[in-house]
Write a structure and sequence with these properties.
Blueprint (H helix, E strand, L loop, with lengths): L2 H12 L7 H10 L4 H8 L4 H32 L12 H27 L14 H11 L1 H19 L3 H20 L8 H23 L6
Helix pairs in contact: 1-3, 4-5, 4-7, 5-7, 5-9, 7-9, 8-9
Keywords: Membrane, Transmembrane, Transmembrane helix
């Protein structure tokens, strides 16, 4: 890789360095790394770009298998009755969350088969992406799209399962999610340098998003 290309790549994460935890979340979703500087260091080596794509191709089949498990589990929840009377899979908000998970699982499998078929082709050269941070981010997000769709389908499946429990438990879930997300955003300008903080931040924010989306589309019965 040319010296100018390396410098352009180094500018990619540094532009986000002042945003605290946000670049770590973006990095986790876009590259699978907890730190954008790690990704920058990897692709700065002569064969780093090829190794990055090789790692992607190696992790895609397990993701496809996991997505299939989410799809089959969602189908079971949607088509069977609950084993205990105080849990309801047919509640509108639960059914809505499970339907989201089902649709995302189908879309995820389509994306994954498509990207798996494309993964054998020569990787796009990084020299065509180093001139623009937007191009690099767009390419990385598209490359990670199967994983992102899988993550959201799993979140909606989890949300639907949790919402199927009694109302008191549902309120407790909302309280924990709001508190956890508040703590995350309270420390948004802090440096999260460990995997646990990054993963918990991503989980809490996306879980709250899934919960609020389901509740807003299918309001809770307060009577």
């Amino acid at each position: 890789m040319a010296e100018g290309d390396v410098e352009s790549q180094q500018g990619f994460p540094l532009a986000l360095a002042s945003l605290g935890v946000l670049p770590h979340i973006i990095s986790f979703l876009a590259t699978g790394e907890g730190n954008l500087s790690s990704f920058r260091t990897e692709i700065s080596t002569p064969d780093g770009w090829e190794r990055f794509h090789s790692r992607y191709r190696a992790t895609l089949p397990p993701t496809m298998a996991a997505q299939g498990l989410v799809l089959s589990t969602t189908v079971v929840f949607l088509t069977t009755s609950t084993p205990v009377p105080f849990v309801s899979y047919t509640d509108p908000k639960v059914y809505g969350a499970l339907s989201f998970a089902f649709a995302l699982s189908l879309a995820g499998l389509v994306f994954q088969f498509t990207f798996f078929a494309m993964s054998g082709r020569p990787a796009i050269r990084e020299t065509g992406l180093t001139g623009s941070q937007a191009k690099m981010l767009t390419y990385l997000v598209c490359l990670r799209l199967p994983y992102i769709v899988f993550l959201f389908s799993l979140l909606f499946l989890t949300t639907g399962f949790l919402l199927s429990w009694p109302r008191t438990f549902t309120y407790l879930i909302a309280f924990v999610l709001f508190c956890g997300t508040g703590i995350t955003f309270h420390g948004i300008f802090l440096r999260f340098n460990n995997w646990f903080a990054v993963i918990m931040s991503v989980f809490l924010v996306l879980m709250l998003f899934a919960y609020l989306l389901v509740v807003s589309l299918v309001p809770l019965d307060w009577s």
